[in-house]
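**Archive record**
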Amino acid sequence: MELSVKEIAKIINAEIFGDNSLLIKGVSSFEDSNIYDITFANDSQFFNKFKKTGAGAVIVPQSHGIDIERFKDIVLLKVENPKISFFKLVSIFHPPKKTNPGIHPSADIGLNVKIGENCIIQSNVVIGDNVSLGDNVHIMPGVYVGDDVFIGDKTLIKPNVTIMEKSKIGDHVIIHSGTTIGSDGFGFVQSSGIHEKIIHTGYVQLGNNVEIGAGNTIDRGTLGNTIIGDGVKTDNLVHIAHNVKVGENTLIVAQVGIAGSTRIGKNVIIAGKAGISGHIKIGDGSIVGPHAGVYSNVPENEIVSGAPHMPHKQWRKVVCIMSRLPEMRKKLFSLEKRVKKVEK
């Protein structure tokens, strides 16, 4: 595939500085590109590295005052958001593989299943009874869909995903491989020295435009529901326990664990390997730092770090002190000895 710089500028609504007839044959990272590639520079750290790129064209921010003369050997395309514009081109140069709608002969379809228009159900898929699939749903090989599941329009379920009974999946959702939606929560009651299992009768509800990473486990509610709001994105290996509510447009990074009945607000960011205790509330717009251990409520728009969690500014001071603890310990012992001598 080839596109001229002029054609690319029309696609991404860019202002051109340089040769608009240059042919672009591919997209590449900043440092791995060649003369026929286009790449992007999102901020000033890249502008000092232009000699390291072999790209013929670079997408740059419209707002940044770039000295055009410094980069006259490279075609520059100025846009409002270089990253978004670049990945729009990525989707053009690397379009997804087309699969024709239809049901593979090896798929096992249950009773009273409603399948919308242009759906793709690939090999070894198992779909239970009373399932409803919207239009343009794509279910890839090895997926299990339990009874009474609803899946909305234009949703993509990748290989070896398990969606347990009664789960509700919204429109334009992506669920990556190895994820389980609607597993039982970790609920037991001790009786006569034995852990008796609590039956979970709730379900999981995913909103629209949600993306769930690979290897996630999202537990069904004990009696009520586990709800993931519109626009939520989770990274790989995230665990969300029973009856958790996650607000709209929240980001949850890899290896986060959220205990049962916790409420996560809207537009929250939870960084990697953070642990969130049960029955607490994380306010809208807050940020939980990596490896944090959150044991109590977090106010709106608060940034917390550390285990146990504390305001991020306080945590930075704590970290600075921690590195000095061995030295402070020696001084303390020395002072104790001096005080004892004075007392004698």
About this structure: The chain has two domains: 3-93, 103-316.
